[in-house]
Design goal:
Blueprint lengths: L2 E7 L16 E2 L2 E2 H12 L5 E4 L3 H8 L4 E4 L6 H6 L2 H4 L5 E6 L7 H13 L3 E9 L8 E4 L5 E5 L6 H4 L3 E10 H8 L14 H8 L3 E6 L12 H21 L3 E2 L5 E3 L4 E2 L4 E2 L3 E4 L3 E2 L4 E2 L3 E4 L2 E2 L4 E2 L3 E3 L2 E2 L4 E2 L4 E2 L4 E2 L4 E13 L4 E13 L4 E2 L4 E3 L9 E3 L4 E2 L4 E3 L2 E3 L4 E2 L4 E2 L8 E3 L4 E2 L5
Parallel strand pairs: 1-4, 1-6, 4-5, 7-11, 12-15, 13-16, 14-17, 15-18, 16-19, 18-21, 19-22, 20-23, 21-24, 22-25, 23-26, 24-27, 25-27, 26-27, 27-28, 28-29, 28-31, 29-32, 30-33, 31-34, 32-35, 33-36, 35-37
Antiparallel strand pairs: 2-3, 6-10, 7-10, 8-9, 37-38
């Protein structure tokens, strides 16, 4: 059995009230369309066909070569949208799975179960996913006869009061027998709105005496479609709950899951504790037995084991084992803190390496610098790295002691075990073991 997947993504999404195509709105840090593409990839190695319309070029730039894109120039309904895939897929597959790009919560396991149910019954022409729910969310109704056979799908706008009372809803995900599908798409009737509905394929099949079946989804939340920003927020909450539950089951403590945001690309070691209002984004990697938060953001950052980060923002940074940061610190791209470093409140590090055991207590800026082991940086220290045209490097060797409010005017080197006095403005290198102070700083103590 060869499976082809078609993802319908042509709609503008007018209820989003946005110039951005609906399928590009972000959910959990990814465009909506990403989720259906990933689900398709989990089912087959064959690239899915993505039917695009509004904002097609913008969608194309995001999707790239992950799908074969076909254009629905006029949005004339879901049946018409699927017709656009026929030139690409006719004669290429036995079974065609159709889903929507605005249903990001559908799990690959649900789609796999649908395909298996469809192929298990060799005489089935259409197998669809339905859901039992009291809230219809605009879904059509699945109509069955007295024997339980599916005989029709009725759009909510066209349903009678009796049909509106039906709790089995059509989720809009279908498996079709490919040989039956393509010629019958051209037999779809034109709706009163001037569109061709994919739901009408069921009526065609039933009229021919062909078999149609529905697989009831176990989790109604999977079938949440995104039509408004309210739906987007609902989906975000479901996705966040899934991710957080997975990490708690893996040995991570979340003190308040409702205020913890973890992107699905993040990795976390066991026995880590995450406090409220903590956000972990991108390619962040957290070691074991760390404590993060409260009020902390980590983006594309790597932490070793037993690190503590409190009320701070870390972007593109690397922390080795046993590092403590914060509160109110900011690590910018290129910051590398070696084992046992302490970075205190209101300290900022950018494109700099701090050696093992180094301490930056508070109110300091370390940028474009290399600090050795066991350096002490006094409060108010600034590496003055930019002369208005170029960035310059500061080097502080092992065991140096930098007094409070020292200005290190780069390029400059502070030698091993050297010291600067409080308020010094250092414009020249300080040799190892020497003391410099004053404005501008002068070296006054001979090396011992």
């Amino acid at each position: 059995m060869h499976l082809a997947v078609v993802i319908l993504a042509a709609g503008q999404g007018t209820r989003m009230k946005s110039d951005l195509p609906k399928v590009l709105h972000p959910l959990g840090g990814h465009p909506l369309v990403t989720y259906s593409l990933n689900a398709a990839r989990a089912l087959t190695d064959t690239r899915p066909v993505l039917v695009v319309g509004y904002g097609a070029e913008r969608v194309r730039k995001v999707v790239g070569d992950r799908a074969i894109l076909v254009l629905q120039a006029e949005q004339l309904g879901t049946g018409h949208a699927l017709m656009q895939a026929e030139p690409v897929l006719a004669g290429q597959a036995d079974t065609v799975l159709v889903l929507y790009a605005d249903m990001p919560l559908v799990r690959p396991e649900t789609l796999r179960a649908l395909v298996q149910a469809h192929t298990r019954q060799g005489d089935t022409i259409i197998t669809l996913v339905s859901v039992i729910a009291d809230r219809s969310r605009g879904f059509g109704r699945v109509v069955r006869d007295a024997s339980g056979n599916v005989i029709a799908l009725v759009e909510e706008a066209q349903a009678t009061p009796e049909q509106l009372a039906i709790r089995e809803l059509n989720a809009g995900i279908y498996c079709f027998d490919a040989r039956w599908l393509w010629p019958h798409l051209h037999q779809l009737p034109l709706s009163p709105k001037g569109e061709y509905y994919l739901t009408d394929t069921v009526a065609l099949a039933v009229a021919e005496g062909r078999k149609v079946q529905a697989v009831i989804a176990e989790d109604p939340e999977e079938m949440l479609g995104i039509n408004t920003r309210v739906h987007l927020a609902e989906a975000e909450a479901v996705l966040r709950r899934r991710i957080n539950q997975r990490w708690m089951e893996a040995g991570v403590t979340l003190l308040d899951p409702l205020t913890t945001y973890i992107q699905d690309t993040v990795e976390i070691g066991p026995d880590t504790v995450i406090l409220p209002n903590t956000h972990l984004w991108g390619q962040t990697r957290v070691g074991a037995a760390c404590t993060l938060g409260p009020n902390t953001i980590l983006r594309d950052t790597t932490l070793g084991d037993r690190c503590r980060v409190e009320a701070s923002v870390l972007e593109g940074a690397t922390l080795e084992d046993d590092v403590s940061v914060g509160p109110f610190a900011h690590l910018r791209p290129g910051a590398h803190l070696a084992r046992g470093v302490h970075l205190g409140n209101f300290a900022e590090v950018k494109n700099a390496t701090l050696g093992p055991g180094t301490k930056v207590g508070h109110f300091s800026y370390i940028g474009d610098a290399t600090l050795g082991a066991n350096v002490n940086i006094g409060a108010g220290t600034v590496t003055c790295n930019f002369d208005g045209e170029r960035k310059h490097h500061t080097t502080i060797e092992d065991g140096a002691f930098i007094g409070s409010d020292t200005m290190l005017v780069a390029p400059v080197t502070i030698g091993r075990g050297a010291k600067t006095g409080a308020g010094a403005v250092v414009t020249r290198d300080v040799p190892p073991g020497r003391l410099a102070y004053g404005v501008p700083a002068r070296v006054i103590q001979e090396e011992r």
